[in-house]
Amino acid sequence: MTTRPPAEVGMTLDEVDTPALLIDLDAFEGNLKALADTLAGTSVKLRPHGKAHKCPIIGHKQMALGAVGLCCQKVSEAEAMVFGGLPDIYITNEIIGARKLARLAPLAHQARIATCVDNPISIAPLSEAAQAAGVEIRVLVDVNVGQNRCGVEPGDAAVPLAQAIDKAKGLSFGGLQAYHGTSQHFRTHEERRAAIKGACEAVEKTIGALKKAGLDCAEVSGGGTGTYPFEVASGLYTELQAGSYIFMDADYGLNKAEDGSPFKDFRQSLFVLATVISHPAADRMITDAGTKALSVDSGMPTAHDLAGINYKMAGDEHGRLELDRTNADLSVGDKIQVVPSHCDTTVALYEWFVGLRGGHVESVWPITGHGATQ
After folding, report:
1. DSSP secondary-structure letter at 35?
2. Closest by CA position to 18, among listed 367, 368, 372, 352
3. Which of 53, 129, 143, 320 has its CA 20 to 30 A from that of 27?
């Protein structure tokens, strides 16, 4: 069931109902352009991760600035993007189960579809689903480049998988999935650089093993918002999977640039609008945005542009503002903007984006992939 949008085009910010997921359109558009400009003239193509926004409208904006397609994590996310008109989708995850495969394969009649595998068990069912639908699916080998999640170990272990894909009917070998997710949030520039240096060594080792077996590696896909300069400069990666760059969050705000200053390659554009609903004590206020409005998997959110306030969770529907004694600028009924600690998991809680420019609502976009967890 789709909920009523919290705003209408033309409203002022004060008229937007809460909690609401806001996009500062000037910052958002600046972020889109910043990464597109960075990649212009390089050999690296942008394939941004749709799990960050789950919104085909945003996907089209990314492709209009040069992205070759989008990434997704789930078949249901891919369905939302394909049905929303996106022509090229790569599911950067292992797809296991007959029902999921039966949904995945027909999407290749409407878009170019790819996925990845890290186990030979996955290949035959994927091939059967592709043949049943009369399509071809591009398949990458998922390599563990340091995250220790999915992925075969680098080097020779990838070769039998690539060979099996190459021989399977309905499938084509597309290259390597080489994503190091945890490195996106290593705080120092040197820690992130070292992590991606290790990832590149793993990629190079694997490409060498494939070449020795007579297999070309057309694509190396990976990279993210926190490490993209290293993947772009590597000479190995061909696709960049950054997703959070369009929004940013409080956790990314803790990353440091090379000189030790805050990481500011992209601007904060995503906020949750909350209303102060109670002021029961001098040092405490309560808002209407709790854990059902703001994810806490990456820590606490922060109150935007409000000094002397810590945002804490007080329940499913309540957020607590811990005030210092000098802060007397807020009253019951006031609205505040909150920076999520993790943009992806906060977006997953909502069905609508409210786009703001100059203090007015310019757009209201459906998050078509809301609830896309399968």
Report:
1. H
2. 352
3. 320
Give the whole-angstrom CA distance, residue 136 versus residue 240.
Answer: 23
pLDDT tens-digit map of 100-143: 999 999 999 999 999 999 999 999 999 999 999 999 999 999 99
- Residues 4, 12: Cα–Cα separation, whole Å: 18
- Whether a cis peptide bond, with omega within 30° of 0, leads into 19 is yes
The end-to-end CA distance of the chain, in Å, is 17
CB 247 within 8 A of CB 52: yes
> What is the distance of C-alpha 42 from the center of its chain?
22
Angle at 297 between CA 291 and CA 299, to 5 degrees: 90
Domain spans, the chain: 13-20+264-366, 26-247
What phi and psi values does residue 364 have, to the nearest 5 degrees? -135, 115
CATH architecture of structural domain 13-20+264-366: Beta Barrel (2.40)
- DSSP H/E element including 128: helix 123-133
Mean pLDDT of all residues in 167-185: 98
Per CATH, the number for 26-247 is 3.20.20.10
**Listed residue (293, 311, 288) closest to 301, CA to CA:** 311
CA dist., res. 231 & res. 44, Å (int): 9
> What are the DSSP calls for 248-306, one per residue?
--TTGGG-B-TTSSB--SS---EEEEEEEEEEEETTEEEES--TTTS--TTS--EETT-
Q: Do domains 13-20+264-366 and 26-247 have the same CATH topology?
A: no
